[in-house]
Design goal:
The longest helix has 29 residues. The mean pLDDT is about 80. The protein starts with a helix and ends with a helix. It contains six helices and no strands. It is mostly helical and about 160 residues long.
Length: about 160
């Protein structure tokens, strides 16, 4: 082996060691969680989401040296409420009943996840949100939830009838 070969091998080993150090910084649980989320993501979204993450991390890394105690520039912490998908509202084509069922399940699960995530502040935040809604919207929400309760009660009654 020549001295150049040894230098190349040494540089390669240093680089590999740095990669291993970077991976070991993340706990196994975080890596598994990230892999689970990525695997559940619609395949057509993965490239765009990965590009967003890469861009944001690169910006964070580049901003660190600029954000010293005397700097006029700082990059804030990550926004835990940030959204990667644009919410679209407005007229939509009518849905088939077979499309409504999974959408209803998804909506219910999303509400439960948000409530679990914000449990300590959920009631206060929800009350504040309801206070800014006009009376007609609060009435519509009330009707919707009463309708949902009737449906849930129907399921419980059906389950009890089948059990007996």
């Amino acid at each position: 082996m020549t001295p150049t070969d040894l230098e190349t091998l040494s540089a390669l080993l240093r680089a590999a060691s740095a990669v291993v150090d970077q991976v070991s910084i993340l706990s196994d649980a975080l890596l598994e969680r990230m892999a689970r989320v990525f695997s559940r993501m619609p395949p057509e979204d993965r490239e765009a989401i990965l590009a967003i993450l890469e861009r944001e991390v690169e910006q964070r890394v580049l901003a660190r040296p600029l954000a010293g105690p005397d700097a006029n520039f700082a990059l804030g912490r990550p926004n835990p409420n940030a959204r990667l998908y644009t919410r679209v509202s407005g007229p939509r084509p009518a849905h088939e009943p077979r499309e409504l069922m999974p959408a209803g399940i998804r909506a219910a699960r999303m509400m439960l996840l948000e409530r679990a995530r914000l449990d300590a502040h959920w009631e206060t935040a929800t009350l504040e949100a309801f206070r800014v809604l006009p009376a007609d919207e609060r009435a519509a929400i009330t009707k919707h939830h009463r309708d949902m309760l009737v449906l849930l009660e129907r399921i419980e009654t059906e389950g009890a009838a089948k059990a007996s």
